[in-house]
Design a protein that fits this description.
266 residues, alpha/beta, Arc Repressor Mutant, subunit A, Rossmann fold, seven-stranded parallel beta sheet, three-stranded antiparallel beta sheet, 10 helices, 36% helix, 23% strand, WH_DNA-bd_sf, DeoR family transcriptional regulator of aga operon
Length: 266
């Protein structure tokens, strides 16, 4: 296993229980104790964990592990949601993608669509995003035009937030917007953990002809800190884990629910 792969694997172990011991790394990654300690020291120098006697913890780190290091047990569901979202997007559309793992999955699906890769004198797709990881992911596709909003980077999610973001978004018109969330409740609506991200998400949604919350079924019934004021929540794309009772609760409040069929994940 290469060093970069080991470091990522250690952060995966850390994300599972908020702490990891040298012995765990030795056993699960088949490395020596000296290598495990050096890897922990390297991650500590990047402030991705805090070293303890015999291991490491994230309890005293001043920020959450970035989304690319979070253990994601919903990959299959998010891939299904991403595929369903992609099928709504015609060639030539202008779309908004907020940050988050589900939106990143949408970007992955779009980056492999054959019709978007065909030669063209004009963009086959225009993507407006406040997520720098999504912009970097799509920037290698020459047919896709990328617009990054500007703003201050949230290190937890790679999303740009703040007044500079708002200024840019006030001057764009989107065909579709896809908004990721941390929680989704039929009564409260979509919520996220950061108030700055909530404000940007709401504005992106309002700038679109049609806006969709994209959330795997584990987010349903969960309430996070910040609501998306000014945004009328009317479309949801989720996975087959949603129950009929939950679908009915959303539909009774005027929300159109799209249940993505399962897809295979490599």
């Amino acid at each position: 296993m290469k060093r970069a792969e080991r470091l990522s694997a250690i952060l995966d172990l850390l994300a599972e229980s908020n702490q990891v011991e040298v012995e765990d790394i030795v056993e699960k990654l088949a490395v020596s104790p000296a290598t495990a300690r050096r890897d922990l020291d390297s991650l500590a120098s990047q402030r991705l964990l805090t070293r303890t006697r015999g291991g490491a913890t994230i309890e005293t780190v001043a920020y959450d592990l970035p989304v690319r290091y979070n253990k994601d047990n919903q990959t299959e569901h998010k891939r299904a949601i991403a595929q369903a979202a992609s099928e709504l997007i015609p060639r030539g559309a202008v779309i908004g993608l907020c940050g988050g793992t589900t939106s990143t999955a949408i970007a992955s699906v779009l980056s492999t669509r054959r019709d978007l890769m065909e030669p063209s004198n004009k963009p086959t797709l225009t993507v407006v995003t406040n997520a720098i990881n999504i912009a970097a992911q799509l920037a290698v596709r020459p047919n896709i035009k990328i617009m990054v909003t500007g703003g201050i980077v949230n290190p937890r999610s790679y999303e740009l937030v703040g007044p500079y973001t708002d200024i840019i978004l006030q001057n764009v018109a989107l065909d579709f917007a896809f908004v990721g969330v941390n929680g989704l409740d039929p009564e409260v609506g979509p919520t996220v953990s950061d108030e700055g991200e909530a404000a940007v998400n709401a504005l992106v949604a309002r700038r679109a002809f049609a806006a969709y919350v994209v959330a795997d079924s584990s987010k349903i019934g969960v309430r996070s800190f910040a609501t998306m004021n000014g945004y009328v929540f009317s479309n949801l794309i989720t996975d087959s884990g949603i129950t009929q009772e939950q679908i009915s609760a959303f539909e009774e409040r005027g929300t159109n629910v799209i249940v993505a069929p399962p897809v295979e994940v490599d």
